[in-house]
Amino acid sequence: MSERGPATSNAVTVTVNPILPVSVSIAADANPVCAGITVNFTASPTNGGTTPAYQWYNGATAVGTNSPTYAYVPVNGDAISVY
Hints:
By secondary structure, this protein is mostly beta strands. The protein has strands at 23-28, 39-46, 56-58, 61-63, 69-72, 80-82. The protein is rod-shaped, with a radius of gyration of 24 Å.
């Protein structure tokens, strides 16, 4: 049997990219609208990664689903946002 010495691997240089600022903006397909009309809101993320998550709000109340779009029949004064 032959003795073996310690093994040595190659070196791997790693590049770490900086964390990019994340943001999201929304657009409504109509504003203002007549009472009873559905408005479609669409979220557009910046630096959201490959599978961004969405939480829609009407004021402070969570609404909608984890989707980049939200359809809603608003009433006067509603404030729709997404995080």
